[in-house]
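Archive transcription. Copying these from loose printouts into the bound notebook so they stop getting lost. Printout 1 of 2:
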Amino acid sequence: MNMNKIKYLFVIVCVITAIISCSDDKKYEPFDPEKQALKDNDSLVKFLKNHFYDTQSKEVKVLELGKTALFNDTKLKHKKVDANGLKYTLYIYKTVEGTQVQPKEKDSVLVNYRGLRIVNSQLGDVFDEHNLSWFKLSEVVKGWTYGISEFKSGLNVTETNQPIRYEDYGQGLLFIPSGLGYGNTTTLGYRNQNMMFYIGLLDVNKTK
């Protein structure tokens, strides 16, 4: 093998080594939860300023001329939450207050819900949806724990041998930063992603 070939191989090896080194540095860059929290809030604020709640379809849509952005809507509450040593803002949009019981962290709740990702300040796909599901508020993501506790349950008007039915129950939306959601580690494939949930609080089982 002549010297030119040796030099050529040496250069190739150096380039490959440099690429792998840069890739490893990026891969193992330490996660900064405070930086992520700021990024999440900026993304949520941008989303809320560019979307509105359509009262007819009861859906969140891209902002249209003449409509009020969610961020400026009087129904939107900004709730400050301390979790994992950081301060977060949880955004709660209440369409129906509810009439019965307001749950606390240790209580169990019966809910209808639909969860969507918020990706780059745009509404993403539905990743979870269930009706008539019981949860302990102490065993769900913090966004739910602090968000659903702002609503009240409804009145069970189910008749004998008929489907379960509630009236006047709390309804609305939760806009959850990733730090109050699945965070930086998750098996669901939604690491560091903000989420939006449509929720209906049907019933509350108080913990004694």
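Printout 2 of 2:
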Amino acid sequence: MILDLGRHELREGPRVLRLRRSEENMLFAIARKAEGIARRDSVLEEMYSADGKRLPQSGILSVLLSQLQRRTEEAGLPFPIERIPRVGLRAKNIEIVNKRGMLPARARADLTALMEQCRDEALADRCYDHLAAML
């Protein structure tokens, strides 16, 4: 299954689901965990802290998971997240694809702050392109 951050979609073969921003941010936060299991509080922190928003209560994550499960089933896709009671969440075979020039919200916010400090616009653009290519 492919999580395409550039197109804001989840796809497997010919089946495609256009993702809402919160769904995409949630899937990205879960799928990118190197150790495989994402704690619920860390998922919420990653989803909301980059935008400078106050963290909602953890119950919102259960609501988002249920909505995403319903939408993936309606699209004929398997639900890409495994719930592990009292431990966290794990992505099931999700490959993250990033269209060149697109950055996740947290990286985009960090890079924007860095670019504001940089007086050389061409250098800032090269840095952005370089980081986007790495993701």
